[in-house]
Amino acid sequence: MSQADRHRHLGPRPRTNAQPREDVTEPKALLDELDSVIGDVERDSVQRAARWHALSKDVDFRSCSYNLARYLVLRQHDLRPLQRGLTMLGLSSLGRSEGHVLPALKATRASLAAILGQDHRERPTPEAFFTGERCLARRSRQLFGEPNRHRQTALMVTCPSEAADDPAFLLGLAERKVEALRINCAHDGRRKWSRMIEHARAAELQTGHRMRIFMDLAGPKIRTGKILGKPGKLSIGDRFRILRPGAEVADEKGGSALPSVECTLEEPVLASRVGDHVFSDDGKLGCVVEEINANGLIVLVEQGPEGGARLKPEKGLNFPDADLGIAALTDKDRKDLHFIARHADGVQYSFVQSADDVRQLTDLLAQLRDDWENLALVLKIETIRAIDNLPEIIAQAASRQPTAIMIARGDLAVEIGFARMAEMQEEILWLAEAAHIPVIWATQVLENLVKKGRPSRGEMTDAAMSARAECVMLNKGPHLLEAIEVLDTLLHRMGQHQHKKTAQLRALESW
Question: How confident is the model at residue 391 (pLDDT cuts 50, 70, 90)?
Fold first, then answer.
């Protein structure tokens, strides 16, 4: 099974140590089962936790790394039968154990022991139980500042190009208590970036509200280049070519000319194999590689919109099955880091896929700033390989500097399949909470409201769910300020009902 197929598989992933599926209901049997799980967690997490501990210059993250290692071991078990039995006794807490794995397990064990009339003095202290929650809150403050008294979830806003010449735009954001600004280094340039930052700092002085500046590295852009010929719309069953940069059309398949499009980078074309998947334009066209030649690939369209879709330049290409071998940092990124190190509060790392990618970035930052460990690092998770390596990526980053995860839902949905996006979004939230690092919920939040002035019902529900993250990012659009006010109210109301996975049980007022 290919990497992409594995991530598109919608059922539970098989585990060699999966628990039996029969319900466990007797307190003594539950205690035995729980003791077995605790033993596995304590034993199997030691090696990984010790390796991460050795990485860390951040004393706080050392305890966080142990909790993350324990969570990974815990979630290799199928806990459903145990969970059902605990629920019957009013003891279920394992489903909310992300931030405090061992204390949650031992608290549950102490309660079971009390039911059985056994010694239950090993119950964790409140200090031990809530240490992870406090650590996550502290790390969120490091990145986004003190929480808004009206809502706990921070807001991040992407600056449009026009913000460089519109001080009122940045003032409007400061007046609405936006915590963070995102400047996309794929657009504009240093002069405009400087003006955006100047306007932001002036707005801070005028309002007394601090806004953090995060600058987003462009990263390698795998996109369509020039279109050769004038292809019509492509539908399911059609074929087209994806060419290496500068390649010329040579052979034809079936004796007829095929539409052709250049790929802006040659590595994905060279790394592809027959049977690999390729997606174009945010997944609008889903294709499979049928043939490889010296010029590039011939792909078959397997999925697409009714009525077909045209090939266009400057549209994203995704090669989820290929081991691309592309460096996460481009020459442009390396140059932009000189500006970012001097002017920004944090850097957003596009296309990060491994712990080694993190090391390359931090090595560069160390050359540019003596206090580089104070610069926040946002890890944009947008590929299958980043998902596979996420625990190691987190440990490498958070062991040295304030770190957050951005769930880049646009590219990630194309990579893993739209059907799995909601599930993976949840898993990333859980993993980050286990590591006690904040999450930024990004891509298409209130998109219709921001761009058209009217939200869809589905996106309002999506925005409500974003309250479980520590920060929500809004993109640019003509109705952005209105969207901020709507989201501000929504996050305030949802924050009264739920914190992370835990219901707050505020009194209901509708009936």
Answer: very high
pTM of the model: 0.89
Report in angstroms the alpha-carbon separations of 41 from 44, 45, 52.
6, 6, 16
Distance between CA atoms of residues 176 and 155, nearest Å: 10
How many C-beta atoms surround the C-beta of residue 428 within 10 A? 22
On whether the CB atoms of residues 437 and 139 are closer than 8 A, the answer is: yes
As beta bridge partners, residue 503 has: 498
196 near 165, Cβ under 8 Å? no
Tell me if residue 260 falls in helix, strand or coil: strand
For residues 170 and 202, is the Cβ–Cβ distance under 8 A? Answer: yes
Q: What is the rounded CA–CA span in Å between residue 94 and residue 102? A: 10
Spatial contact of 129 and 107, defined as CB atoms under 8 Å apart: yes
* Domain range annotation of the chain: 3-124, 138-220+327-502, 224-318
Distance (Å, whole) CA 229 – CA 240: 11
Positive or negative, the Cα torsion across 191, 194, 199, 200?
Answer: positive
Closest CA to 274 of 263, 258, 288: 288
User: What φ, ψ does residue 234 adopt, rounded to 5°?
Assistant: -100, 135
Compute, in degrees rounded to 10, the torsion defined by CA atoms 81, 48, 322, 246: 150
How many C-alpha atoms does 118 have within 13 Å on its Cβ side? Answer: 11
Q: Which fold has domain 224-318?
A: M1 Pyruvate Kinase; Domain 3 (2.40.33)
What DSSP assignment string belongs to 168-205? HHHHHHHHTT--EEEEETTSS-HHHHHHHHHHHHHHHH
Q: Side chain identity at 432, as an amino acid letter?
A: A
Per-residue pLDDT at 401 = 93
CATH architecture of the domain formed by 138-220+327-502: Alpha-Beta Barrel (3.20)
Mean pLDDT of the 468-492 span = 92
Cβ-contact 80, 20 below 8 angstroms: no
* pLDDT number for residue 10: 37
